[in-house]
Design brief:
alpha/beta; Spore Coat Polysaccharide Biosynthesis Protein SpsA, Chain A; seven-stranded mixed barrel; 27% helix
């Protein structure tokens, strides 16, 4: 009589254990689903918080019709300082991604000729081993139906084995109205072109009026603009962010266009607290949504951003006051450091007085942040002032190019950046790259670079050009507002001038 009870008890115990396993399994699945939905909701909330209140319905924001054109409207209504259509990577197909589009034939609407009335250039990154074969549509104002355009393309850069930088061109031979968008789709009549993502076009000038020639040289005629991209590891500290802006502002740069999604809205809001008569700079923020492995396609993304930067600055006529005469693309860890001059305006005026050099090649120098501090550097100086030896390591460095917009009279000149190129000697100007040096072949989870003993074993040379700007940087009003710690603690209702 006892054995059946034991057998029955064992069976019940096994069912009970099976029930617990099933409950546990279902709980884990439910938890994973909850976690997934939580992160999706968190991501949407972060986007809403990052871009501000969009004023669009949930369906419009998250639905299938959401594209870069809608995001443009969101950004325009946000608290960010975005005053133009932002460039955004959008998938044309699995091999090509469009970035930004520029309408260059629409100069004065009432004087358009019927032949080649509209020409839209779109920056595209695509795989090098695939031939582009697309059709295009041009969307017009006050029209719900697009017009079929003529598609063409040209390769701008072949520096990357995996990717090429293209310009996709879409043109209309008749003046049917003012274009507001362009879309590309696979050359297949079975595919509905209405579903293709739309790039909002940005109007640019077809020609720029040149300055009147004079024997008198004015340094103030030079207005350098700087377009900033993320580092190869796309994280920048708040200290490095402020140091970069303040230092280059000291060098005479007043126009900054920042392509970076890692800059928080809090930093942007704090920057807006600074009185404009103290900063006297113009800063434009654009998000950067790269659809590739960033480190592997870094140079190609940088080339695309440079092209976007030049397109945007070319659109301004030289008769407009205070528009850029030169443009350069740098990452947050790169600094243009003059050897003789105290600012870039005087340097460029001396190096190219006739303004005929299209591109100036500035050679890079690598300064490792994990080297010893210089004994002559003052206490309280930032790290960029304390590292005075540049190293020759096997890692490849990219030159910086100062592009002369004054030498470009037509829009097509942007595609001829190497027409006249001149190297500037390191004795005059260099681009200092400040980063922690590490062995790229060895992965360390802690992110630790070479130790100080290893650093001494590498070939290096003293370069103290940055030291001469140390006192000017730490005494700068903007920098003092930041390092005092008060501007990041004070609220917008308080007077920032009290901190000077």
């Amino acid at each position: 009589m006892k054995n059946p009870r034991k057998s029955s008890g064992n069976i019940m115990r096994k069912y009970y254990q099976l029930f617990l396993v099933i409950v546990c399994f279902v709980s884990i699945i439910t938890l994973l689903i909850y976690r997934h939905e939580y992160y999706r909701l968190r991501y949407v909330l972060e986007v809403l918080n990052f871009f501000g209140k969009p004023g669009l319905s949930e369906i419009e924001f998250c639905g299938p019709g959401f594209n870069a054109t809608m995001l443009s409207e969101i950004l325009r209504n946000s608290s960010m300082e975005v005053r133009e259509t932002p460039p955004l990577f959008q998938e044309i197909d699995e091999n090509f991604y469009s970035y930004s589009s520029f309408l260059r034939s629409y100069h004065k609407y009432e004087k358009l000729s019927q032949e080649n009335a509209h020409n839209i250039d779109t920056i595209v990154i695509g795989k090098a081993n695939v031939q582009p074969n697309f059709r295009c549509n041009i969307w017009l104002e006050n029209s719900l139906k697009p017009r079929s355009g003529r598609f063409n393309f040209k390769i701008i850069s072949e520096s990357d084995k995996a990717f090429h930088l293209y310009i996709f061109q879409c043109s209309l031979t008749k003046n049917l109205g003012k274009p507001k968008g362009v879309s590309f789709y696979v050359n297949d009549y079975n595919i509905n072109p209405i579903n293709a993502p739309i790039n909002r076009v940005i109007q640019v000038n077809t020609k720029r009026k040149t300055r009147e020639k004079t024997n008198i040289r004015f340094v103030n005629n030079i207005e350098p603009a700087m377009c900033v991209i993320p580092n190869q590891v796309p994280i920048v500290s708040r200290d490095a962010f402020i140091e970069f802006l303040v230092y280059h502002h000291m060098m005479g740069v007043n126009f900054f266009t920042i392509y970076d999604s890692m800059i928080s809205e809090d930093i942007i809001r704090r920057l807006n607290l600074l009185p404009p008569d103290i900063t006297q700079w113009s800063i434009q923020f654009f998000p950067l949504n790269y659809p590739f492995v960033f480190a592997k396609s870094y140079n190609m993304v940088r080339s695309a951003i440079e092209l976007d930067c030049l397109f945007r600055h070319f659109r301004y006529d030289k008769e407009d006051a205070d528009k850029a005469s030169h443009a350069v693309v740098l990452s947050w860890d790169e600094f243009l450091v003059p050897r003789i001059h105290n600012n870039l305006k005087a340097l460029l005026d001396d190096f190219d007085p006739t303004r005929k050099v299209r591109s100036i090649n500035v050679k890079p120098l690598l300064f490792c942040l994990n080297q010893y501090d210089d004994d002559n550097a003052e206490i309280g100086y930032p790290d960029i002032m304390k590292k005075t030896h540049y190293f020759k390591l096997p890692q490849r460095l990219t030159s910086a190019y100062v592009r002369n917009l004054d030498s470009m009279t037509t829009f097509n000149d942007i595609f001829k950046l190497n027409l006249t190129i001149k190297d500037i000697p390191l004795e005059i100007l260099g681009v200092h790259k400040y980063t922690e040096c590490r062995d790229p072949k060895v992965y360390l989870s802690g992110g630790v670079g070479y130790n100080e003993t290893q650093m001494q074993g590498f070939q290096h040379k003293f370069e103290g050009a940055m030291l001469k700007f140390g006192q000017s940087l730490v005494s700068n009003k903007i920098y003092r507002l930041y390092t005092s710690g008060q501007i990041w603690e004070k609220v917008s209702s308080e007077n920032v001038r009290d901190m000077l």
